[in-house]
Amino acid sequence: MLLFSYLPVTILCLIFASIMLVHxxxxxxxxxxxxxxxxxxxxxxLLTIAFAFVYPHLxxxxxxxxxxIIIPNAIDELSLLGNIFIxxxxxxxxxxxxxAKIRTIRNPELLLEQHNYEVFCKExxxxxxxxxxxxxxxxxxxxxxxVGLCIVVSYYIFFELLGSAWINYAMFIVIIIGIDFxxxxxxxxxxxxxxxxxxxxxxxxxxxxxxxxxxxDSFSSTSVMxxxxxxxxxxxxxxxxxxxxxxxxxDAMASMIGIFTxxxxxxxxxxxxxxxxxxxxxxxxxxxxTIFAVAFxxxxxLSNWGLELTLxxxxxxxxxxxxxxxxxxxxxxxxxxxxxxxxGFVLILFLIxxxxxxx
Length: 359
Prior knowledge:
mainly alpha, 2 domains, 12 helices, 74% helix, 0% strand, globular
C-alpha cells in the first residue's frame, strides 16, 4: 500500500469528530440538555473517531492479496477510490457550503429568514407532522436498498474481472457510499449548530427530512446509524446484511406501523409512545428481513445457511428486537446504535455457540 494513502479519510473523520467534541463541550451545561442526549452525542463522536482508525483496516481486509482492476495492487486502488469519492465529495460539500455563506454575505437580508436557524426551528416545529415522521423513516430504509443494489450491480460488473474477489470491491463501494452519506449529515449538523449561514437551500430541505424535534439542538441520528454498521463489515456478509436490514428496514417499518395505527394503538408501557402494534410490526419485519438477508446471501454464494438455521436466527433476532424496543421505551438512548450493536452481538454469539463461521 502507498505509504499513509489512507490518511486523507482518517484525518477528515478526526476533523469532524473534533468539531463535534467542541459542540459537546460548549453545550454540556445547558440546563434542558438531558443526560441521555449527552450520552448519545458522546457515542456519535466516538463512533466517528473509531471509523477514522478502522478505515485503514477495511482497506487491508478487502484489498489484501488481491489484484486491482486498473492499478496492479488492489490495496492501492481501494485507497485511491476512497480518497477520490470520500475526501473528494466532502471537498465538494465544503465549496457548496462556502458558496451559501458568500451568498449571505452579499445578501444580509437572507440571515433574517432563509439562513436564520431560529426561524428554521420555529417553522420545523410548526410543520412537523406524521407525514414528516414517515418521510424520515423512508430515508432510514435507503441503506438496505443501496447495499442490495450495490451487490447486484457489482456482481454483474466485477465477477468476470475479479472472480470470487468481486465481493471485496462491492463492499468497499458500500463503505464509500455509506461514509459519504454519514459525513454529509454530520457536516449538515455542524453547520446547523455552529453557523446556519453556510447551509445551502437544498441542504436545508435535506435537514428537514432527517431531523426530529428532539434533535434540533443536537446531532441527528441518521449518521450514527451508518457508523453503527461498521463493526459488522469484518464478519461474513449475511451477518452484516441482517444487522443492516433489521436496523434500517425493520425499525422503520415498526415505527410506521405505530404511526399508521394512530389513536387506535395500544401504548405499552402506558407512559411511553411505544405501542403493542409497533412491537408486533417490529417482530414480523425483523423475521422477514432476516430470511430475506439469508436468501439474498445464499443466491450470490455469500453464505450457505440452511432453512432451519435461518428460521432459528430469525426467531431469536425478532425477539431481541422487541426487547430492545422495550428497553428504549424507558432508557431514552438512540436505538439507531443500540439496535445494531445488541442484535449483532446476539447473532454472532449464537453462531459461535453452534459453531457456524462468523468470519
